[in-house]
Amino acid sequence: MTEFLIRRILQSLLVLFLVSIVTFGLIHSAPGGPTQIFLSPGLSQEAGKIQAQNLGLDKPIHIQYMKWIGGLLQGDMGHTFKNNLPVGEILWPTVKNTVILMSAAWLFAMLIAIPWGIYNSTSEYGLSDQTASLISYIGFAMPTFWFGIILQELFALKLDLLPLSDMYTMGKEGDLGDLFLHLVLPVSVLTLGFLASYVKYSRSSMLEVLEQDFIRTARAKGMKERRVIFRHALRNAMIPIITILGLDLPILVGGAAITESVFNWPGMGRLFVEMALAREYSVLMAITLITAVIVVLGNLIADILYAVVDPRVQLGRKGGASA
User: Fold this and answer.
1) What residues are paired with 314 via a beta bridge?
2) What's the pTM?
3) pLDDT tens per residue across span 211-236
4) 301 or 180: which carries more pLDDT confidence?
5) Cβ contacts of residue 195 below 8 Å, gap of 6+?
6) Of the four listed, 137, 198, 313, 315, which is most buried by Cβ atoms within 10 Å?
7) Domain CATH code at residue 229
8) Exposure of 142 by Cβ count < 10 A (0-12 exposed, 13-18 middle, 19+ buried)?
9) Which GO terms describe its cellular component (predicted)?
10) Residue 8 has pLDDT above 50, yes or no
11) What does the alpha-carbon distance between residue 216 and residue 237 come to, in Å, rounded to a whole number?
12) Is the model's pLDDT at 169 over the cut of 80?
């Protein structure tokens, strides 16, 4: 296990290094790069060049990258171009808010979808299974922003049961009850999309395991069905589910960006949209790198959970996890 963890951490650091290079290169080569921010009608080209020199934007891109990555290793994410504000002061509060929203949606989706998928695998094509299929079709087909607007129209404007947007009601910052009310609608939007896939994956994975010979043997020995399902089948069915949970992190972050914009949630996704429109590239690079860290950590945790769920998985061998 120790060897595996060391190897995976080194691989993760390499991935993050490559992500930083690609992100830095793409952003600086995009049309309207950082220097173009200063070349407005009210600012001469010469003044723009002087400003670029002051910020180090006139240097070769590899020199700029080394300076940026060096500051990043020291905890300095840089400053915004327009207001010269520290990126960390802008970004870290939004990261916390996004983690709150993502965690609530992810946990809620798993608590509903996995038990529901397991139940549907034991009662194929029943009412519950058909209902789950209908919800899955709706979840896959319905645009996130449209579903969010519909919920706002119904529950916030017409019924006046829930807040329309934002994270807190003005004057109630830090109130957990108020936070919960504001979470209901955006979490519902994010949950629907994941519910659609998680129920299907859980059901399919369980059905595949239930057809195995060792399940037939356990039933032939007179073992209770509940014990067969939860003691033998579920443990083997969890590995594909864990894989999907780890791989869905990028989708969750992307979905949060749209949902945060619709509900005016002060998170990292909404900040990314705002900074992209403002062409604040230092903030965009920091957000991209943090997203990569979240994805890498999610996959690392998924690999570790393989061994926890199924002891037959050996995590110390070359090539990663193997059964």
Assistant:
1) 322
2) 0.78
3) 888 888 888 888 888 888 887 888 77
4) 180
5) 109, 112, 113, 135, 136, 139
6) 198
7) 1.10.3720.10
8) middle
9) plasma membrane
10) yes
11) 15
12) yes
